[in-house]
Amino acid sequence: MGDRGKRTELPFWLTVLVYALPLLAVVIGSLLFVRAMVDYGVGQEKQALTTVAVTAAASLDPAAVATLRGSAADIGTQAFRHTRARMARIRQVNPSLRFVYLMRRQQGRFVFLADAEPESSPDYSPPGQVYDEKIDGMLQVMETRWPLVEDAYQDSWGQWVSVLVPVLDPVNGRVIAIFGMDIGASSWSQTVSSYGAFAAAISALIGGIVVLFLLGHHRQRRHGERLADLNSALNAELIERQRAEARLSRMANLDGLTGIPNRRQFDTQLQQCWDRALRQRQPLSLLMADLDFFKRYNDRYGHLEGDDCLRRVARQLLALAQRPEELVARYGGEEF
Fold first, then answer.
1. Angle subtended by helix axes 263-280 and 185-253, to nearest 10
2. Of 67, 78, 314, 334, which residue is least crowded by CB atoms under 10 Å?
3. What are phi and psi of 180, to 5 degrees?
4. How far apart are the first and last CA of the chain?
């Protein structure tokens, strides 16, 4: 068979690469998917928080806010009480909020106008209290007059994510205050992380499917290799069996001493030639040759010389058979 039944083995490094590349692609794809889902979650949460803040800011009375002076003189005024009550209500219906407040920029500094925190709370900021820790976002809102959700930051009150909305004068569109709402950074992170956790679960499921597929493919490949080995061994065995049968057939039809066809093959071919001669109405010739005085030759020169004599006679007779249908056979003993 040569190399036809030989199975080609992949190099070990190539086999590892074949299985490692899909796993690496799944890992990279999973990381990108988780990152994309986290970014999507951040965008969704910012949009939802902005919607709540814009709706809440719209419930405030801008005329009342415009009358606030950002000092202790506001305490007790109807505009101050009404604004604080409205802000307290906003925080009440949004349990995730920690602080709700109003600020304004006065004389280059941001001061509190109103705070939804109870006055008895140590975190309460009275009107006129200056805030100068994280003002970049408020400056941006005043400049653009667009709502803004700030990334998590640290100030004296803790770590927060703030949404800032401009309160505009309905007459001239001027920014008269900044409405702010704060939620805890840890709460924000947990909400955003849920998107990543969902993406990680999906990625783990897909990764598990890929691993199962690769394991199944590996097992199928190993079974295929074993089957190919069994088929190759079976083919080799069949070929060897055919060769053995051919050898046995030749041995059964050849004379062991002279190497020419024996009586068995002669009888078989004689019947075939006889049948063909009858069908074709052609003559059939048969010549019988017997070595005279062969027993005396054997007794005089020995059996080895007698055997050699039979072989030489067989060769001479075989040389006379020129056509394919002509057959020389040893009929028995010294008879041909």
1. 80
2. 78
3. -125, 145
4. 39
